[in-house]
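Fold sample X.
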Amino acid sequence: MPWYATTNITIYNSQLFQQAGLEQPPKNYSELAEVAKQIKEKTDKYAFFISFLPEELSEVLESFGKMGVKLLDVDGKAAFNTPTGRAVFKYWVDLYQDGLLPKEVLTKGSQAGIDLYLSGEIAMLFSGSEAIEAISENAPEIGQVSKPVSQITGETGKNSIMLMNLAISGNTKLPDRALKFALFITNNQNQTAFTQEANVLPSITQTLENNYFQNLPSDASTQDKARIISANQMLKAEVLLPPVKNVNKLKQIISQNLQAAMLAEKTVEEAIADAAFEWDNLSGI
Protein backbone atom coordinates (compact mmCIF):
# COMPACT_ATOMS: atom_id res chain seq x y z
CA MET A 1 0.00 0.00 0.00
CA PRO A 2 1.39 3.42 -0.94
CA TRP A 3 2.36 5.33 2.19
CA TYR A 4 4.05 8.62 1.34
CA ALA A 5 5.99 10.19 -1.51
CA THR A 6 8.70 12.71 -2.30
CA THR A 7 9.27 14.55 -5.55
CA ASN A 8 12.05 16.88 -6.59
CA ILE A 9 11.60 20.53 -7.48
CA THR A 10 14.03 23.02 -8.99
CA ILE A 11 15.51 25.53 -6.57
CA TYR A 12 17.29 28.34 -8.36
CA ASN A 13 19.55 31.23 -7.42
CA SER A 14 17.66 34.25 -8.75
CA GLN A 15 20.73 36.47 -8.31
CA LEU A 16 22.86 34.28 -10.61
CA PHE A 17 20.02 34.15 -13.12
CA GLN A 18 19.85 37.94 -13.09
CA GLN A 19 23.59 38.18 -13.63
CA ALA A 20 23.25 35.85 -16.61
CA GLY A 21 20.45 37.96 -18.07
CA LEU A 22 17.85 35.24 -17.54
CA GLU A 23 14.34 36.08 -16.38
CA GLN A 24 12.92 32.58 -15.99
CA PRO A 25 14.36 29.18 -14.98
CA PRO A 26 14.11 26.34 -17.53
CA LYS A 27 11.04 24.11 -17.62
CA ASN A 28 12.38 21.27 -19.77
CA TYR A 29 15.63 19.68 -20.88
CA SER A 30 15.84 21.69 -24.10
CA GLU A 31 15.64 24.93 -22.15
CA LEU A 32 18.02 23.54 -19.54
CA ALA A 33 20.79 23.11 -22.13
CA GLU A 34 20.28 26.68 -23.38
CA VAL A 35 20.28 28.09 -19.86
CA ALA A 36 23.40 26.10 -18.96
CA LYS A 37 25.25 27.65 -21.88
CA GLN A 38 24.16 31.20 -21.08
CA ILE A 39 24.99 30.93 -17.38
CA LYS A 40 28.46 29.56 -18.19
CA GLU A 41 29.13 32.31 -20.73
CA LYS A 42 27.84 35.18 -18.58
CA THR A 43 28.95 34.15 -15.09
CA ASP A 44 31.60 31.45 -15.68
CA LYS A 45 29.63 29.26 -13.28
CA TYR A 46 27.70 26.07 -13.88
CA ALA A 47 23.94 25.89 -14.14
CA PHE A 48 23.52 22.62 -12.24
CA PHE A 49 25.09 19.41 -10.97
CA ILE A 50 23.83 15.89 -11.64
CA SER A 51 25.74 12.78 -10.59
CA PHE A 52 26.69 10.02 -13.03
CA LEU A 53 27.89 7.65 -10.32
CA PRO A 54 26.16 4.25 -10.64
CA GLU A 55 24.66 4.39 -7.15
CA GLU A 56 23.26 7.88 -7.76
CA LEU A 57 22.11 7.53 -11.36
CA SER A 58 18.37 7.62 -10.61
CA GLU A 59 17.96 11.23 -11.72
CA VAL A 60 19.71 10.56 -15.02
CA LEU A 61 17.65 7.41 -15.60
CA GLU A 62 14.47 9.36 -14.86
CA SER A 63 15.44 11.82 -17.58
CA PHE A 64 15.06 8.98 -20.10
CA GLY A 65 11.42 8.50 -19.12
CA LYS A 66 10.76 12.23 -19.15
CA MET A 67 12.20 12.50 -22.66
CA GLY A 68 10.09 9.62 -23.93
CA VAL A 69 12.44 6.64 -23.62
CA LYS A 70 11.28 3.35 -22.15
CA LEU A 71 14.24 1.72 -20.42
CA LEU A 72 12.97 -1.88 -20.44
CA ASP A 73 10.27 -3.73 -22.36
CA VAL A 74 7.63 -6.06 -20.90
CA ASP A 75 10.10 -8.96 -20.95
CA GLY A 76 12.74 -7.00 -19.04
CA LYS A 77 14.95 -6.56 -22.10
CA ALA A 78 16.71 -3.29 -22.93
CA ALA A 79 14.39 -0.93 -24.79
CA PHE A 80 16.56 2.18 -24.77
CA ASN A 81 18.71 1.54 -27.86
CA THR A 82 16.44 3.60 -30.10
CA PRO A 83 16.83 6.93 -31.91
CA THR A 84 15.22 8.71 -28.94
CA GLY A 85 17.42 6.80 -26.51
CA ARG A 86 20.53 7.75 -28.45
CA ALA A 87 19.36 11.37 -28.38
CA VAL A 88 19.20 11.24 -24.56
CA PHE A 89 22.69 9.70 -24.39
CA LYS A 90 23.93 12.45 -26.71
CA TYR A 91 22.20 15.14 -24.65
CA TRP A 92 24.25 14.32 -21.56
CA VAL A 93 27.45 13.65 -23.53
CA ASP A 94 27.20 17.03 -25.28
CA LEU A 95 26.62 18.92 -22.02
CA TYR A 96 29.72 17.36 -20.50
CA GLN A 97 31.97 17.68 -23.55
CA ASP A 98 30.88 21.29 -24.07
CA GLY A 99 32.10 22.12 -20.55
CA LEU A 100 28.60 22.82 -19.21
CA LEU A 101 28.79 20.26 -16.39
CA PRO A 102 31.35 20.21 -13.57
CA LYS A 103 34.02 17.54 -14.05
CA GLU A 104 33.04 16.16 -10.64
CA VAL A 105 29.74 14.79 -11.98
CA LEU A 106 31.69 11.65 -12.93
CA THR A 107 33.30 11.12 -9.54
CA LYS A 108 31.06 12.66 -6.87
CA GLY A 109 27.52 12.22 -5.61
CA SER A 110 24.61 14.57 -5.02
CA GLN A 111 26.14 16.03 -1.86
CA ALA A 112 28.71 17.74 -4.08
CA GLY A 113 25.85 19.45 -5.90
CA ILE A 114 24.37 20.65 -2.61
CA ASP A 115 27.75 22.03 -1.54
CA LEU A 116 28.21 23.83 -4.85
CA TYR A 117 24.78 25.41 -4.58
CA LEU A 118 25.36 26.53 -0.99
CA SER A 119 28.62 28.17 -2.07
CA GLY A 120 26.97 29.96 -4.98
CA GLU A 121 28.91 28.02 -7.63
CA ILE A 122 25.88 26.52 -9.41
CA ALA A 123 22.61 28.25 -10.25
CA MET A 124 20.14 25.40 -9.70
CA LEU A 125 19.62 22.54 -7.29
CA PHE A 126 17.31 19.64 -8.08
CA SER A 127 16.08 18.44 -4.70
CA GLY A 128 13.05 18.00 -2.49
CA SER A 129 11.22 20.95 -0.96
CA GLU A 130 12.81 20.11 2.40
CA ALA A 131 16.11 21.43 1.02
CA ILE A 132 14.78 24.99 1.24
CA GLU A 133 15.06 25.02 5.02
CA ALA A 134 18.56 23.52 4.98
CA ILE A 135 19.73 26.14 2.46
CA SER A 136 18.42 28.98 4.60
CA GLU A 137 20.09 27.57 7.71
CA ASN A 138 23.48 26.73 6.17
CA ALA A 139 23.82 29.59 3.68
CA PRO A 140 21.43 32.43 4.61
CA GLU A 141 22.60 34.69 1.78
CA ILE A 142 21.90 31.99 -0.78
CA GLY A 143 18.61 31.18 0.92
CA GLN A 144 17.43 34.77 0.51
CA VAL A 145 17.82 34.63 -3.28
CA SER A 146 16.60 31.04 -3.72
CA LYS A 147 13.24 30.43 -5.38
CA PRO A 148 11.34 27.17 -6.03
CA VAL A 149 9.77 26.09 -9.33
CA SER A 150 8.61 22.79 -10.81
CA GLN A 151 11.13 20.07 -11.65
CA ILE A 152 12.67 19.80 -15.10
CA THR A 153 10.68 17.59 -17.45
CA GLY A 154 10.78 16.59 -21.09
CA GLU A 155 8.50 16.18 -24.07
CA THR A 156 6.26 13.79 -22.13
CA GLY A 157 5.51 16.33 -19.40
CA LYS A 158 6.06 13.59 -16.82
CA ASN A 159 7.31 14.28 -13.30
CA SER A 160 9.31 11.76 -11.34
CA ILE A 161 8.30 10.58 -7.91
CA MET A 162 9.80 8.41 -5.19
CA LEU A 163 7.13 6.34 -3.48
CA MET A 164 7.38 4.58 -0.13
CA ASN A 165 5.13 1.58 0.40
CA LEU A 166 3.96 -0.67 3.20
CA ALA A 167 3.94 -4.39 2.49
CA ILE A 168 2.66 -7.34 4.49
CA SER A 169 4.97 -10.32 4.79
CA GLY A 170 3.66 -13.57 3.37
CA ASN A 171 5.00 -15.27 6.51
CA THR A 172 2.95 -13.26 8.99
CA LYS A 173 0.74 -15.23 11.36
CA LEU A 174 -1.59 -12.25 11.79
CA PRO A 175 -2.44 -11.06 8.26
CA ASP A 176 -5.76 -9.48 9.23
CA ARG A 177 -4.20 -7.43 12.02
CA ALA A 178 -1.29 -6.49 9.78
CA LEU A 179 -3.72 -5.24 7.13
CA LYS A 180 -5.71 -3.23 9.67
CA PHE A 181 -2.51 -1.66 10.99
CA ALA A 182 -1.30 -0.77 7.47
CA LEU A 183 -4.68 0.76 6.62
CA PHE A 184 -4.58 2.71 9.88
CA ILE A 185 -1.13 4.14 9.06
CA THR A 186 -2.15 5.10 5.53
CA ASN A 187 -5.60 6.53 6.20
CA ASN A 188 -6.39 10.18 5.49
CA GLN A 189 -6.16 11.42 9.07
CA ASN A 190 -2.80 9.82 9.79
CA GLN A 191 -1.30 10.71 6.40
CA THR A 192 -2.34 14.32 6.93
CA ALA A 193 -0.60 14.41 10.31
CA PHE A 194 2.47 12.47 9.20
CA THR A 195 3.15 14.35 5.96
CA GLN A 196 2.93 17.70 7.73
CA GLU A 197 5.29 16.56 10.47
CA ALA A 198 7.80 14.86 8.15
CA ASN A 199 7.56 17.39 5.27
CA VAL A 200 6.71 14.74 2.66
CA LEU A 201 3.78 14.22 0.31
CA PRO A 202 0.77 11.94 0.81
CA SER A 203 -0.06 9.02 -1.44
CA ILE A 204 -3.84 9.48 -1.41
CA THR A 205 -5.75 12.25 -3.17
CA GLN A 206 -7.98 13.00 -0.20
CA THR A 207 -4.97 14.12 1.82
CA LEU A 208 -3.45 15.90 -1.18
CA GLU A 209 -6.62 17.99 -1.49
CA ASN A 210 -6.12 19.32 2.05
CA ASN A 211 -5.67 23.10 2.22
CA TYR A 212 -2.16 22.53 3.57
CA PHE A 213 -1.11 21.22 0.15
CA GLN A 214 -3.29 23.45 -2.02
CA ASN A 215 -3.55 26.97 -0.60
CA LEU A 216 -0.73 29.39 0.06
CA PRO A 217 -1.04 31.41 3.29
CA SER A 218 -1.03 35.20 2.91
CA ASP A 219 2.42 35.34 4.51
CA ALA A 220 3.74 32.38 2.50
CA SER A 221 7.39 31.49 2.99
CA THR A 222 9.66 30.00 0.34
CA GLN A 223 9.11 26.66 2.08
CA ASP A 224 5.32 27.06 1.73
CA LYS A 225 5.66 27.80 -1.98
CA ALA A 226 7.91 24.78 -2.47
CA ARG A 227 5.36 22.52 -0.74
CA ILE A 228 2.50 23.69 -2.98
CA ILE A 229 4.62 23.25 -6.11
CA SER A 230 5.57 19.72 -5.02
CA ALA A 231 1.96 18.81 -4.30
CA ASN A 232 0.74 20.08 -7.66
CA GLN A 233 3.40 18.00 -9.42
CA MET A 234 1.83 14.84 -8.00
CA LEU A 235 -0.95 15.01 -10.59
CA LYS A 236 1.53 14.20 -13.37
CA ALA A 237 4.01 12.21 -11.31
CA GLU A 238 4.97 8.58 -11.71
CA VAL A 239 7.78 6.23 -10.74
CA LEU A 240 10.06 6.33 -13.79
CA LEU A 241 12.56 3.68 -12.73
CA PRO A 242 11.71 0.15 -13.91
CA PRO A 243 10.49 -2.14 -11.10
CA VAL A 244 13.17 -4.82 -11.44
CA LYS A 245 15.15 -6.45 -8.64
CA ASN A 246 18.53 -5.76 -10.23
CA VAL A 247 17.89 -2.12 -11.09
CA ASN A 248 21.25 -1.28 -9.47
CA LYS A 249 22.95 -3.40 -12.12
CA LEU A 250 21.10 -1.45 -14.80
CA LYS A 251 22.37 1.78 -13.22
CA GLN A 252 25.92 0.44 -13.24
CA ILE A 253 25.79 -0.64 -16.89
CA ILE A 254 24.32 2.63 -18.15
CA SER A 255 26.63 4.70 -15.94
CA GLN A 256 29.77 2.96 -17.20
CA ASN A 257 28.83 3.27 -20.85
CA LEU A 258 27.48 6.79 -20.59
CA GLN A 259 30.66 7.93 -18.83
CA ALA A 260 32.75 6.21 -21.53
CA ALA A 261 30.95 8.28 -24.15
CA MET A 262 31.34 11.46 -22.12
CA LEU A 263 35.09 10.82 -21.93
CA ALA A 264 35.20 10.09 -25.69
CA GLU A 265 36.27 6.50 -25.10
CA LYS A 266 33.23 5.34 -27.08
CA THR A 267 30.84 6.95 -29.52
CA VAL A 268 27.28 7.48 -28.37
CA GLU A 269 26.17 4.68 -30.69
CA GLU A 270 28.77 2.27 -29.30
CA ALA A 271 27.98 3.19 -25.70
CA ILE A 272 24.24 2.67 -25.92
CA ALA A 273 24.59 -0.54 -27.96
CA ASP A 274 27.09 -1.94 -25.44
CA ALA A 275 24.80 -1.00 -22.54
CA ALA A 276 21.83 -2.77 -24.13
CA PHE A 277 23.94 -5.84 -24.94
CA GLU A 278 25.38 -6.08 -21.43
CA TRP A 279 21.94 -5.79 -19.81
CA ASP A 280 20.32 -8.37 -22.05
CA ASN A 281 23.12 -10.82 -21.41
CA LEU A 282 22.86 -10.73 -17.64
CA SER A 283 21.92 -14.08 -16.15
CA GLY A 284 18.21 -14.29 -15.50
CA ILE A 285 17.23 -11.56 -17.97
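Fold sample Y, listed below.
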Amino acid sequence: MTDASAARRPGEQTLAALGLGAPDLSPADASPHIFPGGGRWRTEIPSCEGPEALAVVLKEASRLDVPIHRISQGSGVWMLTDSEITEMVEATAERDIELCLFTGPRGTWDIGGSTRTDSRGAGLRARGHDAVAGCVEDAVRATELGVKCLLVADEGVLWTLHRARVAGIIPADTTLKVSALIGPVNPAAYAVYENLGADSINVPSDLTLDHLTEIRRVSAAPMDMYIEAPDDLGGYVRMYEVAELIRRGAPLYLKFGLSKTPGIYPYGHHLRELTLSTAKERVRRGRLALDLLARHGADGDMAPLGSRLPGELRRFETYS
Protein backbone atom coordinates (compact mmCIF):
# COMPACT_ATOMS: atom_id res chain seq x y z
CA MET A 1 0.00 0.00 0.00
CA THR A 2 1.14 3.55 -0.70
CA ASP A 3 0.32 7.04 0.44
CA ALA A 4 -3.05 8.07 -1.05
CA SER A 5 -1.75 11.63 -1.43
CA ALA A 6 0.62 10.34 -4.14
CA ALA A 7 -1.87 8.02 -5.82
CA ARG A 8 -1.26 6.49 -9.22
CA ARG A 9 -3.81 6.95 -12.00
CA PRO A 10 -5.62 4.31 -14.11
CA GLY A 11 -3.50 2.89 -16.93
CA GLU A 12 -0.60 5.20 -16.06
CA GLN A 13 2.30 2.81 -16.70
CA THR A 14 0.87 1.36 -19.89
CA LEU A 15 0.06 4.74 -21.41
CA ALA A 16 3.48 6.11 -20.47
CA ALA A 17 5.13 3.16 -22.23
CA LEU A 18 3.15 4.07 -25.36
CA GLY A 19 4.18 7.71 -25.21
CA LEU A 20 0.76 8.81 -23.98
CA GLY A 21 1.64 9.62 -20.37
CA ALA A 22 -0.35 12.24 -18.50
CA PRO A 23 1.24 15.37 -17.03
CA ASP A 24 2.73 14.94 -13.58
CA LEU A 25 0.40 15.54 -10.67
CA SER A 26 0.93 18.83 -8.90
CA PRO A 27 1.60 18.58 -5.15
CA ALA A 28 -0.22 21.90 -4.82
CA ASP A 29 -3.48 20.18 -5.83
CA ALA A 30 -3.41 17.68 -2.96
CA SER A 31 -5.53 18.24 0.13
CA PRO A 32 -3.38 18.75 3.24
CA HIS A 33 -6.16 17.58 5.56
CA ILE A 34 -6.84 14.26 7.28
CA PHE A 35 -9.44 12.84 9.66
CA PRO A 36 -8.74 13.15 13.39
CA GLY A 37 -7.01 9.97 14.47
CA GLY A 38 -5.47 9.57 11.02
CA GLY A 39 -6.57 8.55 7.56
CA ARG A 40 -7.69 10.37 4.44
CA TRP A 41 -10.83 8.43 3.58
CA ARG A 42 -13.75 6.61 5.14
CA THR A 43 -16.55 4.57 3.58
CA GLU A 44 -20.34 4.92 3.62
CA ILE A 45 -23.17 2.69 2.41
CA PRO A 46 -26.21 4.94 1.78
CA SER A 47 -29.94 4.22 1.36
CA CYS A 48 -30.10 1.53 4.03
CA GLU A 49 -33.79 1.94 4.82
CA GLY A 50 -34.43 -0.30 7.80
CA PRO A 51 -33.24 -3.23 9.92
CA GLU A 52 -33.78 -5.79 7.15
CA ALA A 53 -31.75 -3.81 4.62
CA LEU A 54 -29.11 -3.18 7.28
CA ALA A 55 -28.80 -6.92 7.91
CA VAL A 56 -28.28 -7.48 4.17
CA VAL A 57 -25.57 -4.81 4.05
CA LEU A 58 -23.72 -6.16 7.07
CA LYS A 59 -23.84 -9.74 5.79
CA GLU A 60 -22.61 -8.75 2.32
CA ALA A 61 -19.90 -6.52 3.77
CA SER A 62 -18.59 -9.47 5.77
CA ARG A 63 -18.71 -11.75 2.73
CA LEU A 64 -16.89 -9.30 0.46
CA ASP A 65 -14.61 -7.87 3.17
CA VAL A 66 -15.82 -4.29 2.65
CA PRO A 67 -14.86 -2.01 5.58
CA ILE A 68 -17.68 0.34 6.60
CA HIS A 69 -17.39 3.50 8.68
CA ARG A 70 -20.94 4.82 8.24
CA ILE A 71 -24.33 3.54 7.14
CA SER A 72 -27.01 6.09 6.25
CA GLN A 73 -30.76 6.04 5.65
CA GLY A 74 -32.71 8.40 3.39
CA SER A 75 -36.43 8.07 4.10
CA GLY A 76 -36.31 9.71 7.52
CA VAL A 77 -36.54 9.03 11.24
CA TRP A 78 -40.32 9.39 11.03
CA MET A 79 -40.53 6.36 8.69
CA LEU A 80 -39.10 4.03 11.36
CA THR A 81 -40.63 2.71 14.58
CA ASP A 82 -38.75 3.01 17.87
CA SER A 83 -38.02 -0.72 17.82
CA GLU A 84 -36.65 -0.52 14.27
CA ILE A 85 -34.36 2.38 15.19
CA THR A 86 -33.18 0.55 18.31
CA GLU A 87 -32.46 -2.59 16.27
CA MET A 88 -30.40 -0.57 13.79
CA VAL A 89 -28.54 1.27 16.58
CA GLU A 90 -27.63 -2.00 18.30
CA ALA A 91 -26.55 -3.76 15.09
CA THR A 92 -24.27 -0.91 14.01
CA ALA A 93 -22.90 -0.32 17.52
CA GLU A 94 -21.94 -3.99 17.73
CA ARG A 95 -19.70 -3.46 14.67
CA ASP A 96 -18.56 0.07 15.63
CA ILE A 97 -20.26 1.62 12.56
CA GLU A 98 -21.83 5.08 12.65
CA LEU A 99 -25.57 5.10 11.88
CA CYS A 100 -26.95 8.23 10.21
CA LEU A 101 -30.72 8.84 9.91
CA PHE A 102 -32.45 11.58 7.90
CA THR A 103 -34.49 14.18 9.77
CA GLY A 104 -38.04 15.21 9.19
CA PRO A 105 -40.34 16.52 6.47
CA ARG A 106 -38.96 17.79 3.16
CA GLY A 107 -40.36 20.28 0.70
CA THR A 108 -40.60 17.73 -2.09
CA TRP A 109 -43.05 15.67 -0.03
CA ASP A 110 -45.44 18.38 1.12
CA ILE A 111 -47.97 20.58 -0.65
CA GLY A 112 -45.50 23.13 -2.05
CA GLY A 113 -46.22 23.22 -5.78
CA SER A 114 -43.00 25.12 -6.54
CA THR A 115 -40.96 21.96 -6.01
CA ARG A 116 -42.68 20.47 -9.05
CA THR A 117 -41.91 23.36 -11.37
CA ASP A 118 -38.91 23.43 -13.70
CA SER A 119 -37.03 25.58 -11.18
CA ARG A 120 -37.73 23.10 -8.34
CA GLY A 121 -38.50 26.05 -6.04
CA ALA A 122 -37.17 25.55 -2.52
CA GLY A 123 -36.38 21.92 -3.24
CA LEU A 124 -35.78 19.66 -0.25
CA ARG A 125 -35.79 22.39 2.36
CA ALA A 126 -38.15 22.39 5.35
CA ARG A 127 -41.12 24.63 4.50
CA GLY A 128 -42.37 26.68 7.42
CA HIS A 129 -42.12 26.44 11.19
CA ASP A 130 -43.92 23.10 11.43
CA ALA A 131 -41.50 21.38 9.07
CA VAL A 132 -38.52 22.62 11.11
CA ALA A 133 -40.32 21.44 14.25
CA GLY A 134 -40.77 18.01 12.69
CA CYS A 135 -37.06 17.79 11.96
CA VAL A 136 -36.22 18.78 15.53
CA GLU A 137 -38.65 16.20 16.91
CA ASP A 138 -37.01 13.54 14.74
CA ALA A 139 -33.57 14.61 15.98
CA VAL A 140 -34.52 14.47 19.65
CA ARG A 141 -36.31 11.13 19.26
CA ALA A 142 -33.47 9.54 17.29
CA THR A 143 -30.72 10.68 19.65
CA GLU A 144 -32.70 9.50 22.68
CA LEU A 145 -32.77 6.06 21.00
CA GLY A 146 -28.98 6.12 20.55
CA VAL A 147 -28.55 7.52 17.02
CA LYS A 148 -25.36 9.62 16.85
CA CYS A 149 -25.53 11.05 13.32
CA LEU A 150 -28.32 13.08 11.73
CA LEU A 151 -28.76 13.85 8.05
CA VAL A 152 -30.21 17.26 7.13
CA ALA A 153 -31.34 18.97 3.93
CA ASP A 154 -32.01 22.50 5.15
CA GLU A 155 -29.68 25.26 6.33
CA GLY A 156 -32.11 26.43 9.02
CA VAL A 157 -32.52 22.90 10.37
CA LEU A 158 -28.75 22.48 10.40
CA TRP A 159 -28.20 25.68 12.40
CA THR A 160 -31.08 24.84 14.76
CA LEU A 161 -29.72 21.37 15.48
CA HIS A 162 -26.22 22.75 15.98
CA ARG A 163 -27.61 25.22 18.52
CA ALA A 164 -29.50 22.34 20.18
CA ARG A 165 -26.23 20.42 20.36
CA VAL A 166 -24.40 23.36 21.94
CA ALA A 167 -27.27 23.81 24.42
CA GLY A 168 -27.19 20.14 25.43
CA ILE A 169 -30.67 19.37 24.06
CA ILE A 170 -29.12 16.66 21.90
CA PRO A 171 -25.78 15.03 22.82
CA ALA A 172 -22.64 17.05 22.18
CA ASP A 173 -21.07 14.23 20.16
CA THR A 174 -23.99 14.07 17.70
CA THR A 175 -22.66 14.61 14.18
CA LEU A 176 -24.64 16.55 11.57
CA LYS A 177 -24.33 15.56 7.91
CA VAL A 178 -25.47 17.72 4.98
CA SER A 179 -27.38 15.86 2.28
CA ALA A 180 -26.26 15.62 -1.34
CA LEU A 181 -29.70 16.98 -2.18
CA ILE A 182 -28.59 20.49 -1.12
CA GLY A 183 -24.82 20.03 -1.36
CA PRO A 184 -22.71 23.17 -1.94
CA VAL A 185 -20.99 23.70 -5.29
CA ASN A 186 -18.41 26.35 -4.39
CA PRO A 187 -15.88 26.91 -1.59
CA ALA A 188 -17.73 29.89 -0.08
CA ALA A 189 -20.94 27.88 0.32
CA TYR A 190 -18.99 24.89 1.70
CA ALA A 191 -17.45 27.11 4.37
CA VAL A 192 -20.90 28.46 5.29
CA TYR A 193 -22.22 24.92 5.90
CA GLU A 194 -19.21 24.19 8.11
CA ASN A 195 -19.87 27.31 10.16
CA LEU A 196 -23.59 26.45 10.46
CA GLY A 197 -22.65 23.22 12.23
CA ALA A 198 -22.03 20.60 9.53
CA ASP A 199 -19.62 17.83 10.50
CA SER A 200 -19.59 16.28 7.02
CA ILE A 201 -20.83 17.85 3.81
CA ASN A 202 -22.05 15.90 0.78
CA VAL A 203 -21.07 17.68 -2.41
CA PRO A 204 -22.72 16.91 -5.76
CA SER A 205 -20.92 14.21 -7.71
CA ASP A 206 -20.47 16.41 -10.77
CA LEU A 207 -17.89 18.71 -9.15
CA THR A 208 -14.57 18.73 -10.98
CA LEU A 209 -11.26 17.80 -9.39
CA ASP A 210 -10.28 21.47 -9.43
CA HIS A 211 -13.50 22.30 -7.55
CA LEU A 212 -12.45 19.91 -4.77
CA THR A 213 -9.03 21.55 -4.54
CA GLU A 214 -10.70 24.97 -4.31
CA ILE A 215 -12.89 23.76 -1.44
CA ARG A 216 -9.93 22.29 0.42
CA ARG A 217 -8.15 25.63 0.34
CA VAL A 218 -10.87 27.10 2.59
CA SER A 219 -12.21 24.21 4.69
CA ALA A 220 -11.05 21.01 6.39
CA ALA A 221 -14.59 19.79 7.12
CA PRO A 222 -15.04 16.15 6.03
CA MET A 223 -16.52 15.79 2.56
CA ASP A 224 -18.94 13.11 1.32
CA MET A 225 -19.18 12.17 -2.35
CA TYR A 226 -21.07 9.50 -4.24
CA ILE A 227 -18.52 7.50 -6.22
CA GLU A 228 -21.59 6.26 -8.08
CA ALA A 229 -24.60 8.55 -7.79
CA PRO A 230 -28.28 7.56 -7.92
CA ASP A 231 -30.06 8.60 -11.10
CA ASP A 232 -32.00 11.37 -9.33
CA LEU A 233 -28.62 12.90 -8.42
CA GLY A 234 -27.22 12.56 -11.95
CA GLY A 235 -26.24 8.90 -12.17
CA TYR A 236 -22.53 9.77 -12.34
CA VAL A 237 -20.04 6.89 -12.09
CA ARG A 238 -16.60 8.14 -11.04
CA MET A 239 -14.98 4.90 -9.94
CA TYR A 240 -11.83 5.36 -12.02
CA GLU A 241 -11.26 8.75 -10.39
CA VAL A 242 -11.50 7.47 -6.84
CA ALA A 243 -7.78 7.76 -6.03
CA GLU A 244 -7.64 11.31 -7.34
CA LEU A 245 -10.87 12.22 -5.55
CA ILE A 246 -9.19 11.18 -2.29
CA ARG A 247 -5.98 13.05 -3.14
CA ARG A 248 -7.89 16.26 -3.85
CA GLY A 249 -10.84 15.95 -1.43
CA ALA A 250 -9.49 14.35 1.76
CA PRO A 251 -10.81 13.89 4.37
CA LEU A 252 -13.40 12.16 2.18
CA TYR A 253 -16.24 9.71 2.71
CA LEU A 254 -16.51 7.38 -0.29
CA LYS A 255 -20.24 6.82 -0.78
CA PHE A 256 -21.19 3.73 -2.75
CA GLY A 257 -24.46 4.61 -4.43
CA LEU A 258 -26.20 2.89 -7.32
CA SER A 259 -27.33 4.22 -10.69
CA LYS A 260 -29.98 2.72 -13.00
CA THR A 261 -32.38 1.90 -10.20
CA PRO A 262 -35.74 3.44 -9.18
CA GLY A 263 -35.93 5.70 -6.14
CA ILE A 264 -36.94 4.10 -2.84
CA TYR A 265 -37.75 7.15 -0.65
CA PRO A 266 -39.94 7.15 1.36
CA TYR A 267 -39.44 3.43 1.94
CA GLY A 268 -42.23 0.96 2.72
CA HIS A 269 -42.62 -2.80 2.47
CA HIS A 270 -44.10 -2.39 -1.02
CA LEU A 271 -40.49 -1.63 -2.07
CA ARG A 272 -38.94 -4.46 -0.07
CA GLU A 273 -37.41 -6.61 -2.82
CA LEU A 274 -35.93 -3.63 -4.66
CA THR A 275 -34.53 -2.16 -1.44
CA LEU A 276 -32.87 -5.38 -0.34
CA SER A 277 -31.38 -6.18 -3.75
CA THR A 278 -30.00 -2.66 -4.20
CA ALA A 279 -28.59 -2.64 -0.65
CA LYS A 280 -26.63 -5.77 -1.50
CA GLU A 281 -25.37 -4.33 -4.79
CA ARG A 282 -24.17 -1.11 -3.12
CA VAL A 283 -21.80 -3.18 -1.01
CA ARG A 284 -20.54 -4.94 -4.14
CA ARG A 285 -19.93 -1.56 -5.76
CA GLY A 286 -17.86 -0.71 -2.69
CA ARG A 287 -15.76 -3.82 -3.18
CA LEU A 288 -15.15 -2.87 -6.83
CA ALA A 289 -13.99 0.63 -5.82
CA LEU A 290 -11.70 -0.72 -3.10
CA ASP A 291 -10.21 -3.28 -5.49
CA LEU A 292 -9.54 -0.49 -7.98
CA LEU A 293 -7.81 1.57 -5.29
CA ALA A 294 -5.60 -1.41 -4.49
CA ARG A 295 -4.69 -1.94 -8.15
CA HIS A 296 -3.65 1.71 -8.37
CA GLY A 297 -1.52 1.45 -5.24
CA ALA A 298 -3.77 4.01 -3.55
CA ASP A 299 -5.48 1.93 -0.86
CA GLY A 300 -3.37 3.28 1.98
CA ASP A 301 -4.47 5.95 4.43
CA MET A 302 -7.93 4.58 5.21
CA ALA A 303 -9.13 5.99 8.52
CA PRO A 304 -9.33 3.47 11.37
CA LEU A 305 -12.60 1.55 11.52
CA GLY A 306 -14.83 2.90 14.26
CA SER A 307 -13.65 6.48 13.82
CA ARG A 308 -16.50 8.93 13.30
CA LEU A 309 -15.75 12.39 14.71
CA PRO A 310 -14.81 15.26 12.35
CA GLY A 311 -12.13 17.03 14.37
CA GLU A 312 -12.03 20.71 15.27
CA LEU A 313 -14.15 22.77 12.86
CA ARG A 314 -15.06 26.43 12.52
CA ARG A 315 -18.50 27.57 13.73
CA PHE A 316 -20.54 30.74 13.77
CA GLU A 317 -21.11 32.09 17.26
CA THR A 318 -24.34 30.72 18.72
CA TYR A 319 -26.84 32.78 20.65
CA SER A 320 -29.52 32.03 23.24
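Sample Y note: The chain is about 35% helix and 10% strand.
Also: The first helix runs from residue 12 to 17.
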